[in-house]
Amino acid sequence: MVTTFAWVPSSLLAPPDQVLRSLFSLASNGQLLVHVSASLYRLLVGFFLGSLLGAALGIFTGVSKRAEAFLAPTLQAFAPVPPIAWIPLLIVFFGIGEGSKIALIALASFVVVYLHAFQGVRAADQKLVELAHAYKKGRPALVWEVLLPCALPGILTGLRVSLGLSWILLIAAELIASSRGLGWLIWDSRNFSRPDDMLAGMLAIAVLGGLSDRLLALLEKRLLSWRDSFAGA
């Protein structure tokens, strides 16, 4: 409506049909695949590494009081620092290439998943832990059979939160320093006054972000099929 009635010039805000034509054009000439592939590679590698380490350390510090005393104060002290504030330091260590972008996403994913995993373990029912001790369950069995199932809902929630945050940080990193990727496509389109390509890039991010969250939601539903939770009225 805004573009139809010319409330905003088309040079600033492209109409929907023009955005769709731009999206199809980018897809047909192969540019969209190049940018999507670059962004997905950075996102998936960083998200996987950060989430894996965050879940492992979160469970470890949740189970062990010694580990909590040694690691938790440092990790939780840096948790409030906005991930985007790490970009200059990461560029110093890893350069402006793939390393700094992957490290940024891994760092953000690590913090979110670590906190959810730690709290998930500590939220386990003490009676279940005592019952496991009564059956003389060792530490590995206690973690695998009791604490991990209790922490799993929190870990999966952390994964979904960190995935959304990873998309935001990925685009921010690509806007700052990159030569390809969806964030770079948006920035380059803005520099050359191509609002149709810019909005096409944003639409691609929205679709990919929604699909990735949906996949995690399906995984969560499958892994937590045993849980009888409220699904809305």
TrEMBL record:
Q: Which PROSITE patterns match?
A: ABC_TM1
Q: Which UniProt keywords apply?
A: Cell membrane, Membrane, Transmembrane, Transmembrane helix, Transport
List this protein's GO terms for biological process: cellular response to sulfur starvation; transmembrane transport
Could you tell me which Pfam families the record lists for this protein? BPD_transp_1
* Membrane spanning residue stretches: 40-63, 75-96, 102-121, 142-161, 167-187, 199-219
> Which ranges carry the ABC transmembrane type-1 domain?
36-220
* SUPFAM superfamilies in the record: MetI-like (SSF161098)
**Bilayer topology:** Multi-pass membrane protein
Q: Does the keyword Transport apply?
A: yes
The organism's place on the tree of life at top rank? Archaea
Record's subcellular location? Cell membrane
GO CC term (a single one): plasma membrane
| Membership in a protein family | Belongs to the binding-protein-dependent transport system permease family.
Q: What is this protein called?
A: ABC transporter permease
